[in-house]
């Protein structure tokens, strides 16, 4: 996470410089805090176990910190089954250094525990961060092409917004100017989640098939894209044990249905 760049006196020390816990403080002002947190999956608690004040840190260095943390957790009987992080290039390099691969045609979604090579630790890229990155890509390149050649087009999102602004009402969705000009609020996950939603997909489909507006002709691939991303995000972001549909928790009875969504995505 980014932190305010400054130094200050605290007792007999100066705080604010890069410090990775080695006992040596670099003469570089820290701009980020790399935080490691353990989250229980069978109980309701989470505990930060370490933080490092950094300016920049390459993937190899991050991987070394993860390995050291895993070794220490293993020593006190904590079993780690997954590693979750967001997706900047340094973290992707860290994941590769640990032994996992995130290449779509050469996927290896786990690495072996440094203290127990029979135990796999699975890598999960944070769904909320990935959704924001997808919003960035979609709105920037404007056209995505499916394997079958059909085009997924940002212009349909803009046309739907124009239509709703002109008519002064929304077709059962939350689409507004903030979703089109999202860069002003790029940290808000809810904007991306509201964009990639079944309600926006339904509005596009209704505008093409029922209202027959010509500006929505050919939007079927975009509709399917929005529905697929909406379902995948619900599956990856499920947390309520009483959730239903795609938001239901993944368990033995539902895992085959739930895992079909990410494969489609």
From TrEMBL:
Comp. bias regions, Basic residues: 245-258
Domain Transposable element P transposase-like GTP-binding insertion: 128-249
Chain spans, region Disordered: 245-265
Stored Pfam families: TNP-like_GBD, TNP-like_RNaseH_N
Record domain Transposable element P transposase-like RNase H: where: 1-99
Coiled-coil spans in chain: none
Protein name: DNA transposase THAP9
Source species: Dissostichus eleginoides (Patagonian toothfish)
